[in-house]
Amino acid sequence: MTKIEAGNWKSKMVSPGDVDAWMTGIAELAKSKEAVSQTIVFPPFVYIERVKNHIHTLSLPLGLGAQDISRFSSSDKPVTGEVTAEMLKAIGVEWVIIGHSERRTKMAETDEILSQKAGRAKAAGLKIMYCVPNAETPVPLGVDVIAYEPPGAIGSGKAESPEEANAVIGRIKAATGGTVVLYGGSVTADNVSSYTSQAQIDGNLIGGASLTPKDFFTLVINSSPRA
Ligand code: PGA
Fold first, then answer.
1. DSSP state of 226
2. What confidence score (pLDDT) does residue 226 get?
3. DSSP bridge pairs for 127
4. How buried is 206 (Cβ within 10 angstroms: 0-12 exposed, 13-18 middle, 19+ buried)?
5. Distance 169 CA to ligand 1 centre (A)
6. Coil, helix or strand for 77?
C-alpha cells in the first residue's frame, strides 16, 4: 500500500511569505525527484486558500487539509469564531485532523466533542485523520485514517520505537476493523524509514520536520521503500 506522509504545520507558519517560501521550495525539490508516498499538508486555517492556490499553480501532487474543525454546523445558531465543515468543504479542503493531542490537552477537547466534530466532517464529505494517544481511546465510526501519537513523543525528539509503535498500531487496527493507521511523534527524515518498513504502519503524521521544504521533502522521499 502507498504510504501516507502528512505535514502538520500547527501554529508555526507565521507570515504569508513563510508559506510562499515553503511552497516554492517544495516545488523546486519536486522537480528533481518524484515522491512515491501520498503527501498531505495541513496549514493553519488562514493560509489554506493560499496553499491551495500554490498547489494549483505549481501543479504539486499534494493533498490539503485543515488542522481542526468546528463541532457546530453553519446551519446551527451562529457561533462567533468557528470554522465549520461546510466552509472547509466549500473552499476545496479534502482532509481534516481531529483530536490532536495538543487540542485534547490544551483546549480540553473530550472524546464526546471530538466525536461531534467527526460527525460534522463526515456529513460535509471531508476525510478524517483522527488522532489517538493510545490504543484504548475510542474512535468514531467513519474515520478514514487514524494517527497514533503517544503524547510523550510529540515534539520531544523522543520518538517511540518502531517496534512498539508497530505493536500498538496492530492493536488499533484489530479494534477498528483494519483502518489505515499512521504513527506520529518526532519522526524525521533520518528515522522515517524505520517506521514505514514496519508491517502495520501505513505512514506518518509529521510536525516539526514538516516545517522546512528540505526536511519534509527528504522525509517523504525516505519514507518509500528503497527502489
Ligand atoms: P512532531 O509532531 O513531529 O513535531 O513530534 C507530531 C504531531 O504532533 O503530529
1. P
2. 62
3. 95
4. buried
5. 17
6. coil
Q: Which residues contact 192 (CB under 8 A, 6 or more apart)?
A: 5, 204, 219, 222, 223
Q: Which atom of ligand 1 is nearest to the CA of 184?
A: 6
Res. 144: pLDDT tops 60: yes
Do the beta carbons of residue 219 and residue 4 sit within 8 Å? no
Best mutation site among 183, 205, 215, 216 for ligand 1 pocket (most ligand atoms within 8 Å of CB): 205
Model confidence band, residue 227 (pLDDT cutoffs 50, 70, 90): very low
The C-alpha atoms of residue 33 and residue 73 are separated, in whole angstroms, by 42
pLDDT 10s digits, 23-78: 999 999 998 888 889 999 999 999 999 999 999 999 999 999 999 999 999 999 99
Q: Are 69 and 98 in contact (CB under 8 A)?
A: yes
Which residues are catalytic, by number? 100, 149
pTM for this prediction: 0.97
> What's the gap in Å between 185 CA and the centre of ligand 1?
5
- Hey, how many other C-beta atoms are within 10 angstroms of the C-beta on 32? 8
Residue nearest to atom 1 of ligand 1 (CA): 207
Q: What angle do CA 139, 141, 144 make, to 5 degrees?
A: 85
